[in-house]
């Protein structure tokens, strides 16, 4: 009876050398990181992005350890021009601007990270749940999302800052995160709605696989590039938001960070009218620009990293 | 053959199209010679990776990056070598000289514009002065295909069924009076009855307007219904080419034989039918030397591993196969004259009777 | 054994101001699939065949009628209690490209359902890997090659075999194959059809085959049955070979006539009914549903609806007031012997005489 079967495709001309049947998770993980490396090497710009972001990460982690708690002041050199000793000059108190940028990075980056994690976690969770369950849950959650999207962030922060000092970057990140998850939730929901009609999700349901498996193992990985991209973009968004708030002087500043530097440079140093404080203004701006650039360069690789086809080729 | 004197001939010579891949440039179409006689329908049959769609795009010189036409020419009467054309000249030639009906016309229509609006866009982009006449022609064409022209022009893509979209695709390809028409998978994703209707329309419109038509498909049945000549492609080569009745009735190339034996059919003994062993090649798995089909071939010889067979034409049929050459030489020596003279049937007229 | 009686399904389409428009997808469809049996449903798109497949696979609900799986009627059970029964029926998707998760290797794809199966049946984890290899061998692909790979690295035919292997992880009683070969390369289609036939014999798995291409139904085995669906109604039903070679319903004859003839290898049937495509089908529900497109329709056909029944003269059941056998399918021209075939079964030679 089996005349026609098994006659074909049993052997492959370029049959696999490696690849023992029971592929362990470890090898898969190793292959994944090897693939990531390949994707990053494909374009020099991506490597530049990685170097920049890694540099900022080091700055955030180790920066404050490199300097004493109170940065030394040089009373003889207020608003000193750039020199070998002070590559970006000094501020109004004679403190080295580069040191300020480096020590100030931690607050900015931590806020950005906290915001991104909260936005993405909340947005993904709510979007997934609404899209997968549909029906009443969908309606309710999407109305909540609409409300979230409608909250005016700046006025709320103005009000909040009257009672809250935001000493910790995590507090800042929490507030920004809670304000910003709406967009991702909507996007993830629409992705889920379209993915759940795909054959492999239906097959998983037909096989009786548990919902946790379907969401965690089948749906999420397909959305990974999307989520990762949103996360990176959320970081830049949070950096801008929070630097902006400090710059406007909306938030009382207890600690040193880039937004505070901008504020002092413009409103105390008169950087917009005199040239003396210009390096003081430019240094944090340059840092923000570089960070954004690094992230944008990496975002370009996300699609290829999480799509096996693009990763392996 | 009912060759229409106004229909142009198309001559593809030495055509090679390469695609850029991480391991270098690989040929999707390799040194293809193919002549479309004026006024005929030629069917190109091939599986995935055979290069048939790439070949079709060459008639428009529309191969997209990372692919490029590396060598060869595509001569169309009244137009010249399409490969040499560029810019504005090329854009004008598309539509005016060569009409292209995209795969099942599913995704080639703009979902946000009515068919009529897309027709006017087409007319304007080709500098048609009398748009009224264009709309009239379009309505006539649609009516010819059994549809209410006015209503269809007012419709959006989603309001039309698959068969109707396919008709709209044919209309848009013909409305500028192109005399060479390329249909890419015209019946994929259509029902049997719709497919039969579309094929009949293709045949009738072809005859009425005096066209030279190229039908690209994976479905031998669709070609058998509509074409005069059949070219079989495998791994970027045309391995067999000849009148459709003869190629199907007595296939010579081992791939054509295997393919025909593998078609699920309504007639014939099912126990004789079987799938071809192995699988169609992809760009990356094509052998660099020798015959591209040898891995799946039941008549493989030593020479097949090293020397690529050259297409040879005998009594109006072209085959590229070492085994066929060898057998033909033996035949010619043993009984001269047997191989020739098998073909005086006229497929076109025979076909027409069945539809009547 | 899986049986369905009087399966009816109506979809309500929203949109119209005057309220919902109803589309009757299935009208009192009866069917039965024996263990290891093969049943094909054919018809145009929109005839309800896909809906029926999804209902049988438990992915869609039905309005009325009864599905009985191994003696257990489904309508009395709640959603949760039904699922284990419906799991014995696995759907094979038409599109092997979307049926496999592109981000997961074949090993991961097979491991998840097998791990679940191991838990259900109290087997060990080591069984999972062994079984994955066994199943891939069963569907005719090399486990060593396929397991570590992602779907995009496999050909369409291989993917479809993986999809079938995944369906087999649940030890199903029936595989529902919805257009399972329409997206496969022509040279490999018979391989997939042969595999389905082979699984029937070797594992006793029943096959419910859904297609618009009648010819493919022939390759599931001599004992297979064919149902012809038109607008949700079964209009002809009987042994596959009988319905194909001696069709009595004009709709079946239209479908058969529309199947391309391989000119040169085949001659068209003498009474080939030139099919008409329903561009704007008048959706009346009066009389015979096919009457508006039928060239043999009479006054009676527009007034009354014929019911599916045996009339005693044919092997198959039909729903037509004017049944007549017509020779519509092509006949071979005998050239097949040149292709290395010894004999040519002339399947349609005696049809005209019977009509």
Automatic annotation (TrEMBL), chain A:
InterPro entries (UniProt xref): BP-dependent_transpt_permease (IPR050366), MetI-like (IPR000515), MetI-like_sf (IPR035906), OppC_N (IPR025966)
ABC transmembrane type-1 domain sequence ranges: 105-299
Subcellular location: Cell membrane
Family of the protein in this entry: Belongs to the binding-protein-dependent transport system permease family.
Transmembrane residue ranges: 47-67, 107-132, 227-251, 271-299
Coiled-coil segments on the chain, per record: none
Membrane topology: Multi-pass membrane protein
CDD domains listed in its UniProt record: TM_PBP2
Polar residues bias locations: 1-10
Cellular component terms per the entry's GO annotation: plasma membrane
Entry keyword Hydrolase: no
Region (Disordered): 1-23
Keywords: Cell membrane, Membrane, Transmembrane, Transmembrane helix, Transport
Entry annotated with the keyword Transmembrane helix: yes
Pfam families: BPD_transp_1 (PF00528), OppC_N (PF12911)
Gene3D superfamilies (UniProt xref): MetI-like
GO biological process: transmembrane transport
Protein name, UniProt field: Peptide ABC transporter permease
From TrEMBL, chain B:
Keywords: ATP-binding, Cell membrane, Membrane, Nucleotide-binding, Transport
PROSITE patterns for the chain: ABC_TRANSPORTER_2
GO biological process, one term: peptide transport
Signal peptide annotation: none
Pfam families, per database record: ABC_tran, oligo_HPY
Molecular functions (GO terms): ATP binding; ATP hydrolysis activity
Membrane topology: Peripheral membrane protein
ABC transporter domain: residues covered: 10-260
Subcellular location: Cell membrane
CDD domains named in the record: ABC_NikE_OppD_transporters
InterPro entries: AAA+_ATPase (IPR003593), ABC_Ni/Peptide_Import (IPR050388), ABC_transporter-like_ATP-bd (IPR003439), Oligopep_ABC_C (IPR013563), P-loop_NTPase (IPR027417)
GO CC annotations, alphabetized: plasma membrane
Name by which UniProt lists this protein: ABC transporter ATP-binding protein
Source organism (scientific name): Sphaerimonospora thailandensis
TrEMBL record, chain C:
Name of the protein: Dipeptide/oligopeptide/nickel ABC transporter ATP-binding protein
Domain ABC transporter stretches: 2-256
GO molecular function: ATP binding; ATP hydrolysis activity
Keywords: ATP-binding, Nucleotide-binding, Transport
Family under the similarity heading: Belongs to the ABC transporter superfamily.
Top-level taxon of origin: Bacteria
RNA-binding found in the keyword field: no
SMART domains: AAA (SM00382)
Stored InterPro entries: AAA+_ATPase, ABC_transp_ATP-bind, ABC_transporter-like_ATP-bd, ABC_transporter-like_CS, Oligopep_ABC_C, P-loop_NTPase
Residue numbers spanned by region Disordered: 326-355
GO biological process, one term: transmembrane transport
